[in-house]
Design a protein that fits this description.
13 helices, single chain, mainly alpha, elongated
Length: about 280
Amino acid sequence: MATSTRAARTPRPAGTLSAWEGMARQYDYWLTVLKRTWRGGLVSSFLTPLLYVVAMGVLLGGFIEGDPDRLEGATSYLAFVVPGLVASHAMTIAVSESTYPVMGAIKWHKTFYAQLATPLAVRDLVNAFIAFVMFRVAASCAVFMLVLAPFGVFATWWGPVLAWLAQLLVGFAFATLVFAYSARLRSEEGFGLLFRLGVIPLTLFSGAFFPIGNLGPVLEWLARLTPLWHGVSLSRMLCVGQVDWALAALHVVVLAVLTVVGWLLAVHNLDKRLEM
């Protein structure tokens, strides 16, 4: 009995496949998932955010004076709110796709167990899953930015392109960190806590809707410590053409470090979970 227990706890080998080969072997599976689920994501990924921008940026924004000194360089409230909303949208998709689907693959459908019975390693499962989530994030944010281009909210042609890359970095950071969180949960009740105490406060108080300077000194610095603020600030400065390159570099470093930490935790937590 003791021997079998020790054997069960022996770390799995990394596998003989390269990281790219491990992801490529799951291409047909994730393509099938996309074909079966893309219709359900149309409203949440495209229509709802667009209506939100029209309501908040166009209608409500018409009552707000476009003062660049108060709106972080934006000449209108629409130009101010759009980059923040898209960055927030990237976070929301990444979190949503890395919660229940991860638990489903472990607890309900046991997809990860089936995949692990092949030459794939835990690392390959995480990489392919994150790649699929990032495809969703990239497509949604790209369509979002293209639809908003005729509204005249972008100061340069290159700003939205770099802002889109910043939004992908936001997606990577949240997808990896939330995957790590989901891989250790025993019950889906923990997701309610994540959304209520994590996603909603971050969306409201990370500078997407108003400058964080309006929060007061203490809450402003707390907002600066959040991952989403770094993504919102980076996305906005690129879109409005007022780039502080030193601050932009800090944003990139913070989000990149969080992505690496999240990936390492995701692989470690999933490996431990699948051993049990």
